Amino acid sequence: IKKLAVLTSGGDAPGMNVAIRAVVRTAIYHGIEVVGVMEGYAGMIRNDFRPMKSRDVSDIISKGGTILKTARCEEFRTKEGRAIAYENAKAQGIDALVVIGGDGSFQGAKLFSEEFDIPTVGIPGTIDNDLFGTDSTIGYDTALNTVVSAVDKIRDTATSHKRVFFVEVMGRDAGFLALRSGIGSGAEAILIPEVQTPYDKLKQFLNDKTKGHKSSSIVIVAEGAEGMKEGGVFKLAERVNEDYPELDIRVSVLGHMQRGGAPSAFDRVLASQLGEAAVVALMDDQQSVMVGIQNNKISHVPFNQAIKNKKNVNLDLLKLAEILSI
Ligand code: ADP
């Protein structure tokens, strides 16, 4: 390959910049020219390509977000849209593509690389960690640390007032972030989309904690947990409060802060390794694969599997939370 394009797409995640840096510098190291595409697939369709040199990625290793910006792009979902993207890329002399993003971005990348002769490799970047074929996705560890430090602060005020806090964390379809941040912050209960927690069990559980003279309780609730569709975390807390008016219940929605901040050391190393692996994979004539790390080894997972197969959360952690919060 002579000229490679790199883009970030879909939801942003801390560490995407680190991956961009690694892709750009690995390519240059091997004598490959690099261009950055602005705002994901939208930039391909709009013809927004920028040459990237080594110095263009200076000082971004510690910055959250993505210097290439990211976007959702409806047009790329259509064959016509992807054809425009292809024509523009071809006119630039681009003969390989690296897509940094999540599940949706890889669906687009899969179609694009099947339809046209531009080999494409994906790098998993999402705080949700919900991609099969890699132990961790870029941004997940940083988001975990962000949630744990936020909950530590909530715990201080909760304990001072003997309060129960429902803390909503990101995760519409996957409970990885909720589960591990729950263990890491000593949560009393964790509600995730993968497991049905009957309302009665939650009530009973909170009642037990109060009887056990706990001075505070933290319930971590993933956005997509059961019972969240009907009015969200506020409604859930309200329901519990109606049944237990003696409990002093508060709600905290962590929101977008979970996506920001300096990438953790773990994510920096992961993104550096995956950025290099993506370029090497393209040089080895691989395509339509996501690069990942499993048991400390680089893996190449076909887009199909990365998208379709479900990565399972470690349900032992739910039991662990129960044991450790008595
Ligand atoms: P993420 O990559 O974080 O999962 P999205 O699901 O929003 O984010 O996907 C990002 C972009 O990828 C979409 O805006 C769209 O341009 C493209 N995309 C997603 N799904 C498809 C699909 N089925 N076909 C073609 N392109 C898609």
UniProtKB/TrEMBL annotation:
It catalyses: beta-D-fructose 6-phosphate + ATP = beta-D-fructose 1,6-bisphosphate + ADP + H(+). Residues 3-281 form the Phosphofructokinase domain. Mg(2+) binds at D103. Its EC number is 2.7.1.11. Allosterically activated by ADP and other diphosphonucleosides, and allosterically inhibited by phosphoenolpyruvate. Its cofactor is Mg(2+). The active site is at D128 (proton acceptor). Coiled coil: none annotated. Homotetramer. This is ATP-dependent 6-phosphofructokinase. The gene is pfkA.
